[in-house]
Amino acid sequence: MDTAQAVEAIKRRLSLKEVVSRYVVLKPAGRGRWKGLCPFHQEKTPSFYVDEEKGLFHCFGCKAGGDLFAFVERIEGLDFPTALERLAEEAGVELPKRPGAPQNRKELLEVLRLAQAYFQEGLAASEEARGYLQSRGLTEESVARFGLGYAPAKADGLLTYLARHGVSPEEGLKAGVLAEKDGRFFDRFRQRITFPIKDHLGRIVAFTGRALGEETPKYLNSPETPLFRKREVLFAYPEAKAKLREGRAIVVEGLFDAIALHQMGFGETVAVLGAGLSEEQARLLKAQEVREVYLAFDADEAGQKAALQSLDLEMARQFLFYAVRLPVKDPGELLKREEGPALFQKALEEALPEVEFRFQEAAKGLNLSRPEHKRKVLEALTPRMLSPEPFDPVAERLKALVVEKLGLSPRQLEEYLASRKRGRTAPPPPPKAEPKDRVLLLELDVMALLLSLPEEGFLHWVLYVSDHVWPPEGSLLAEFLELARKEPRRDYLKGVLSRKEAGGLFLEKLMMVPPREEPRFPEILEKTLARLREAYYLERRAKLKALLAQEPRLELLKEIQELDQAIEAERRIYRGL
Question: How buried is residue 392: exposed, middle or buried, by Cβ count under 10 Å (0-12/13-18/19+)?
Fold first, then answer.
């Protein structure tokens, strides 16, 4: 199987709609079509469409569009080979081997599966590790559900275990479970409780190890690998999916905290693997139709800073945020208290809405009777009040709170914000407008019609168009027809055209082509070709008239008259006369 065949096999096995639904809430929009808010730009009215039959997505607002691979590349920030690897693994399609190619994802997943088996054997054999988990209040059910394990203190335990299963040290290093120093390989995790980190499909992609003693660091993460980027995963996300679909997410910092809250009955809890929520993690929540996000980060300064960082994400504007004020340092401490679940429920009910939390954090430690302290609060809140959206509810409520608490009049605040806005760096220029001349649009109509055909009839009609229309050399249609004769594969051609300067317009045309009934297709195509030939003739006629004005010659006049007759003939065709 070559790469092109692999791409086609992946598209047959994976639903574009299902993949997009992980990031975008889609609603039905006609037979085989769905729509939602575009994940690539801010909008309030859905202009993002997915057409399952055509295998395309397109935003009529920002013009982003393409096939399954284009979506994954753009949403995940990947290049094509990496997107191909990811989707092939998910679809169970084996990619062609390349000389010197890096470890493929399926093999890395197998290494991680073996590591998980080793760690779970380690937990079963270690009374100390099991006792530690019991001291944290975790039940056997929770330990089993989240797959906790233990990495023994031995430096080459996992190294030896993997070798017995045919895994080389280099493969263990690539999977992130072994380390290497001065040419010597050894276990990355030693004398640590292990937490398997899973992706959105529930596959183990990395580990975090928590020291049993006073070793540093207290928590040790797998390095980033082709499988694992910590910004793209949420701990406990696979276990929380069902509850997240009810519309609420609780986000914590610690892995123990997430497990503790699940055990206390808060099954919508997930944990970040860094400082605060990332854009990619926010998209995972949005894919489960989460509307409200409760940030239950640690009560210390670092936790509150992480909460503020999460609120400043571009994606954050798609949620209602609340900051949970914990009665203890972190949620995990509540697990050992009989009243723990009730205390956390009370903290959720008393959680601060985003606006009040922002104001309290900005005013912390300041005396609002002093003008210079009021100024500090105002400056801290200004970036969020300067919203590019005209009716941003958070910005508007924040302005109202600033007016109330700082003693400003609404007019004073608006004048201040206007002055700050004028002082900001000018926004980048808008993207270059795509060409929209009539000839190009008609050429795109022809290409969209051809690409809407089933594979078996495609080449026949490409040759028919080549015989019935004569695009100028260098035109997009001329390039398309030449390429289609050599490589008559629709998906390939769609990919090539979508990356052209007029790619956005092309995808728009393709999305708008209705399903064609075979008996009517020749008539529709013939009328479209007639309009295109007319446009070519009109362009030629305009050039000849300009020449005639400069140098009156009989042959020019005769050619213009012939063009007039040809134009009239084409008009009779598309008017059905």
Answer: middle
**DSSP code for 316:** G
Q: Is 532 left (phi over 0), alpha (psi -120 to 50) or beta?
A: alpha
Q: Please identify which residue in the block is written with the tokens 């809250």.
A: 261
Give the torsion sign (CA, 569, 575, 576, 577).
Answer: negative
| 40's tokens | 């690539």
Tokens 């009156």 correspond to: 552
Of 241, 228, 225, the C-alpha closest to 198 is: 228
Q: What would the two tokens of residue 341 be?
A: 């679940």
Q: Is 61 exposed, middle or buried (0-12, 13-18, 19+ CB in 10 A)?
A: middle
DSSP-based three-state secondary structure for 113: helix
Hey, how many other C-beta atoms are within 10 angstroms of the C-beta on 313? 18
Q: Which residue has the tokens 């980190």?
A: 197
Token couple for 408: 């400003």
Question: Which single residue is written with the structure tokens 């691979």?
Answer: 69
What do you get for the CA distance between the two ends of the chain, in Å? 51
Contact assessment for residue 469 and residue 449, using Cβ atoms and an 8 Å cutoff: no
pTM: 0.62
Q: At what angle do helices 80-91 and 105-125 cross, to 10 degrees?
A: 60
Give yes or no for a contact between 260 and 137, defined as CB atoms under 8 angstroms apart: yes
Rounded Cα distance, 476 and 478, in Å:
5
**Residue 484: count of CB within 10 angstroms of its CB:** 24
Say what the pLDDT of residue 424 is: 55
At 13-46, the pLDDT tens digits run 888 998 998 888 888 888 788 999 888 887 778 8
438-473 pLDDT per residue, tens:
888 888 888 888 888 887 788 888 999 888 988 888
Peptide bond into 390 cis (omega under 30): no
Helices 393-406 and 410-422: crossing angle, nearest 10°?
A: 120
What single-letter DSSP state applies at residue 285?
H
Contacts of 274 (CB under 8 A, 6+ apart): 230, 231
Under DSSP, the state recorded for 314 is: S
Amino acid identity of residue 21, one-letter, is S
285 touches 250 (CB < 8 A): no
